[in-house]
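Handout, page 2. Input:
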Amino acid sequence: MEKKKILIIGGVAAGATAAARARRLDENAEITIIEKGPFVSFANCGLPYFISGDIKRRAKLLLQTPEGFLGRYNVNVLINTEAIDIKRDEKKVVVKTAEGTKELEYDKLILAQGGSPIIPDIEGVNNDNVFKLWTIPDMDRIHKFIEQNQPKNAVVVGGGFIGIEIAEAFKARGMNVTIVELANQVMTNVDFEFGAMVKSVLEENGVNVLTGVKIDKITGNKAILSNNTEIDADLILFSIGVKPENILAKNAGLEVSQSGAVIVDEYMRTSDPDIYAAGDMVEILHKVSGRKSRIPLAGPANRQGRIAASNALGMNLKYNGALGTSVIKIFDYTLSFTGLSEKFASQFDFNVGVAYTFKDNQVTYYPGGTQLAFKLVYDKSTNKIIGAQAFGIKGVEKRIDVIATALQAKMSLEDLAELDLAYAPPYNSANDPVNIAAFVGQNNISGYSPCISPKEFLEKYDETKTLVLDVRTIGEAAKDPYENALHIPTDELRYRLNEIPTDKTIYILSKDGYLGHIALRILKQKGYNKLYYITGGYSALKWYLNN
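Output:
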């Protein structure tokens, strides 16, 4: 039989996975990886943790080598080799090496070039103290610079995943660190209050966070911000986003979306049936919104590479999209999320409902518990789950993995309420935060206990037509007073009904939502009808008030 030639451009997550999968499917195929850089199949998600010192041995980040690919998979890896042209009619790829150019033939081609960091065109961006972090050589340059120059002040531009991880790494290396973020919050993937929680933890650990500004220029060891502030910057790292590597695809005439991503179908095929694409360079279906978008994450990239290779070798596997499930460590805390946030869900055709819980990750009587902030987003018209976010020290990603599974299964609030999740005092409460959030959603939709999110409350509040009823304890209200509210502690409510007007919409504010629900049920049975409690209470609302 004639050997099928499989050519893969890009050798990290999607490309390396595609090569290994192709070999498992066809022992006789000629499989070649073309990698522009000097390394193949490395753990780019681990790069900040080498700089921080959490990962001690650099070799741990090198998952595979050209020699290893050849020995284990009989895959030929060409490193330091750049693909510069695709001759689709001839089914050849032109590559450039130190020795010159040559052409490689293919029967099926898989593009897995990923993305590249966005670097703004500003003065000083090419200075020796300015970096990005995307590859092993990037990491090596940063590590060497720190070792040789012992910088005191570092500026990280961008408050996303890499920006926050590298800020923590620089802090671990003894630097004063400032994050500069153009948006009004760090971690723009999540709702404002969760971004504010992250910002608070960063600041508690000595990281200065500036939002709503950008760097206009770099002069020596100074960064000049758009508000004319000048900050010390011995080391500057840009992490403001990633653009898809699409030049090769565009020059070959493959279809590209408005976002710059290569367009693929559910089989990971491009507009050329003999060319597939996978990873950060493609646009895929978001399973909740139903829209195509870029989801540049390692998990989806690996699965796409596997499917692209399978279909290149004659299978018929579909890639049905991703949820964007993510997790990030912020010092001792964890942020995790999946699906759509409240703000993003509001941009689509959803009747958005929100449920919060603020409770310990385990029973309160067992020592060592820490508070877990959990937010569930659902559709009030269909009872279907839309997404969730969680933040805390323990048990965070566990809850989000539950919701990711629920989203995959298209589960409803009723399904979540009935989930039989593991319980023992050191690990959980008898009703998990996931169960409780589902109860909140059910009570809201049924009208048994209507609630409103802090964001929606602030948008709808009108002091002439509405009243904020603060039912927190005297101590809670004294510590964090809410102006222009009528304060009646929950335990006094039944005896002070004459103080509560009947002609206004009443928004009930409690510490975390629980007593708000209790107070609402009291008032509802006393004849009050225009009632909502603020889900999450002051624990959620305060982030909007204080930022």
